[in-house]
Amino acid sequence: MCQSRDMATSSSSTSSPPAPTLPCLVFDYGDDQNPATLFSVSGAARRACEIEELRGKRRSWPTAHGWVLAWDPDTTATFLWKWDPRAAAADRIPLPALPQPPPPWRSVCALSGSPTAAGGAGCTVLLAAPPESGGVLWYCHAGGAAAPAWGRHEYDPGGGDGAEKGPYMSCSIGLVSCRGRFYYCHSPTECGVIDFSPAGPPALGTVPMESVPLLCVEGCAGAAADMSTVVEIDGELYVVSVFFHGTDFDTVADVGVYRKDLGRREHVRVESIGDRAILAGSGGRSLGRWCPATEFGLLPNSVYWMSAFDRRLHVFDIELGTEQVRDIAMAVLDISSASINIYTN
Length: 345
What we know:
The chain is an all-beta fold. It has strands at 2-3, 8-13, 24-28, 37-40, 45-48, 59-62, 68-71, 78-82, 91-95, 108-111, 123-128, 136-142, 151-154, 176-178, 181-187, 190-195, 203-208, 214-215, 226-233, 236-245, 248-261, 266-269, 276-280, 285-292, 302-306, 313-317, 322-327, 339-343. InterPro entries: KIB1-4_b-propeller.
């Protein structure tokens, strides 16, 4: 199925107020030679990242619930922390130690729920290694009856060798939780599912899905390439697809927001997400977060995403189909080699 849509574009520049506010993009390079850089989306402020938990040789992996998993190389301790620029100190939840070597810094973390939710049941913490590091999952319990140690599970990511070599599958691609289960992008026509039982290793499965409808672009041979982001909103999964003019990744043709209907196994395009803003990083299957728009000074019913190609912040109005492009002075940085993490409330 091929869809067509026109989109208007405008461009603007931003200034730099002194203090960061949520939500933030953190450009993490994974080493001491290239310190992390923080950009406040609503305040349009870019500065060196001074968050204690993100400095030095510590590793951090943010989640869609606002909590961040951190690993301390000096003690091998892990903990969840929640940063609030208005608070004197971040909230912390201790977790079991994770011996060296630690998970790769490009790993992806997700929580099955809130570790501090009413009832005290806690949640499962899941950390998935990136595609280039093979099929490895780390998991433990946070809050409630905390787990005594991290569990480790290996799975076959595919790929093969020699003539049999094929595409790799990674649970880190589009990893997100929804209603206590974990989901990831297994393939364009399959949604991966990860379930945890009270005892035993995680169980991996798939749900067949129709692929996101491709976009026809006038003057282009074939369908436009896309960049996809998965996000959970009010117990539903959504996919944000950024369509380009073929392989011209500097020109955006359209941005579509689709609800994953797991029952009907199809993607349904939506025209409104209410007073919310979706934020996405960059890459073929980037991470997504959302936050209340008006409360944080963002455009309601919109998608904010960072392009590694033109190194600018794009803001798309879902209802009107219009886009703003904002220069955030990232041209001096090689953001294509950075892990773009999103910190929300």
